[in-house]
Amino acid sequence: MTQELFDFTKPGYYGQYGGAFVPEILRATLDELIAAFDAARADDQFWGAYVRELQTYSCRPTPVTPLPNLTKKLGGATICCKREDLNHTGAHKVNNVIGQGLLAKRMNKTRVIAETGAGQHGVATATMAARFGFECTIYMGAVDVRRQRPNVFWMEQLGATVVPIEDGSATLKDAINACLRDWSESMDSTHYVLGTACGPHPFPHMVSYFQSIIGQEARGQMLTQSGRLPDRVYACVGGGSNALGMFVPFIKNPEVELVGVEAGGHGIESGRHAARIPAHDIGVAQGYKTLFLQDDEGQMRETHSVAAGLDYIGVSPILAHLADTGRVRFTAARDDEAIAAAKLLIATEGIIPALESSHAFAGAIREAPSMRPDEIVLINLSGRGDKDIFTIADAIGDERWFSYLREMGARR
Amino acid sequence: MNLADYIRERRARRGILLMTHAVVGYPSLEANRRMLDAMISADVDLVELQLPFSEPVADGPLFVKANLDALAGGASHGQYWNLFSETAARAPFPVLAMCYYNSAFRMGHAAFCERLRGSGGRGFIIPDLPREEYGDLEALSAENGLAAIQFFTPTSTDERMMRLAQGARGFVYCVARRGVTGSATELDRGLYDLLARYRRMTDLPLALGFGIASADDIRRLRGVVDIAIVGSALLRSWERGGEDAYRAHLTEMAQARYS
Ligand SMILES: Cc1ncc(COP(=O)(O)O)c(C=O)c1O
A82, A93, A109, A387: which is the annotated catalytic residue? Predict the structure, then answer.
């Protein structure tokens, strides 16, 4: 899979990014994980078992859906999207989680832990834990607990313990720190199911490996449905897992332009965003070296995005490298652009996208009108938007929804 | 005298040495100065000063709070190095820097080593920097006469410890148990066996940290390790009872080195 696609300058490095910067206590645990991951990849049965589990449990292969109404409305390129929103639990996160769950079983672990931002990865992990019989603890920033309450409810119903983290900015990065601390103590019984292509080696590689099922399927589907590969592929970039999952199988086709869309928040110039690529500030935190949103003394900055899943200080070291080499082009979409994109997709195609995924659409919507109709744009619809009902209703300012909330509140 | 020899020489006169710790800027720089006054009066043997970082993954809740509150209170590299050089100039004990790697990385390895040496520092402890990621920091620290402290942990294999020992200078920071700083450690048979294993891996002095909290702990470690490292327990005393409680606790632990 991804293995042969990257020039490893040293193991775990992608150009100057990556590595494993963890306290010595975790070294042996990462070595154990690397060995288990290598053995799984060398086992011809493993990938098949992974795909079978996703086919019978999570609606794979997910379709590529043509979007004729959106295409017509924008009047440029022909647009279609990969439906990761149709996965069990509603996002691409489940792919990685099932893969790591199978690995955790091979390592005889009895407990899993995970960080979550939007709550999607937490719900996916709690679901996998229920199915595979793992004990499960989910760490979640207290700010995210407030904005993603429905997901907290489901994680708890699924039997997970959800621990709100009040430290620091009380978002995804703080939840990752909490996981690393838990793991430093619990590693004998516990696997850390990191939810994105970040963190210490082997996580960026491993998460991209599992998520590459997205692009592998999409590639075949494009060839069957359109007779050729797309001209441009868009994906939103939080930590980078849905983007790498989609991009990696296209990397050796230079005619396919790959576009990563970061969270522009209130606009890059406002300082309230989560776009890590433009400032190009290299740093080391949370176990890996990459581009971080940080100040001159290396303290991590507050990030902002309307999409909790994109609201993160770092970006996959693999994507940082692909940005340097120019293989992936990066852009950012603001909160208001993402919400407008979500409304447009809902109205024209009857598809409700997650706010994270809406950033990928916003990027494509901006550029598609200047492309020719014979050019094909593929957008990764990484997740569905039901979880964002509170945020979207807020942004739209729907009065009937607010009065419904008041009534529900009054009943308790 | 190099750091290892300083430790050996002092150790010849005391059953065990004491290394204490402060997070610079927490609860305030003024409080740090009073803690350092207490350390000087108690004649502690070594001190590590921690540079606050926004993502302190090796630390438990108390030090996480200390790091983040220090930053919220405006702690900066400038303040850190000022307090560092002021301390190194007035204190009889060697002072070491403790920081997360991003602080040193952002300064640049050469600038970090020069700044540390220029401030009178004797070495550094970087808990999230494994030896294979040192790059030129190993050579630069040697050129600047700085001890690069390595870690032995309960999960480290013998082979791994031997590799780490090759890059170690000054002493080896021995982690007493799994987990992060701050919670209790049982000083039991398992720990003594672990220390015996560590002992076979290096001739350098051994410093034991994580969970050492009382004068009793120090007494039980006498003759077992060379240095006891005390961090969270003292800060907890400050939080509970201010300077008086801190001094009392520190004095008691310092005396437990002999009696
Ligand atoms: C639907 C959805 N898309 C995208 C992301 C961003 O993560 P990544 O960049 O790893 O795909 C998340 C994260 O929670 C998500 O839930």
Answer: A93
C-alpha to C-alpha distance for A22 and A47, rounded to whole angstroms? 29
Taking the Cβ of residue B171 and every Cβ of chain A, the question of whether any pair is shorter than 8 Å is answered with no
Query: What pLDDT is recorded for position A7?
Result: 59
Structural domains of chain A sorted by starting position, each given as residue range(s) with its CATH number in brackets: 13-56+93-207 (3.40.50.1100), 60-90+212-396 (3.40.50.1100)
**CA atoms of A114 and A121, how far apart (whole Å):** 8
Superfamily of domain B3-255: Aldolase class I (3.20.20.70)
> Averaged over B66-71, what is the pLDDT?
98
How far is Cα A364 from Cα A43, in angstroms, rounded to an integer? 39
Between β-strands A135-141 and A161-165, what pairing exists: parallel, antiparallel or unpaired?
A: parallel
Q: B109 touching A, CB under 8 A?
A: no
- Coil vs helix vs strand at A238: coil
Contact A167, A174 (CB under 8 A): yes
Q: Which of A180, A284, A294, A302 to mutate to test the interface with B (most CBs of B within 10 A)?
A: A284
* Interface ipTM above 0.90: yes
- Using the CB atoms, write b or e for A83-118: b if 16+ within 10 Å: bbbbbbbbbbbbbbbbbbbbbbeeeebebbbbbbbb
Q: What is the pTM of this model?
A: 0.96
First CA to last CA distance, chain A:
52
* Distance (Å, whole) CA A91 – CA A385: 9
Answer yes or no: are the C-beta atoms of B122 and B2 closer than 8 Å. no
Q: Taking all residues of chain B, what is their mean pLDDT, rounded to a whole number?
A: 96
Residue B213 carries which DSSP code? -
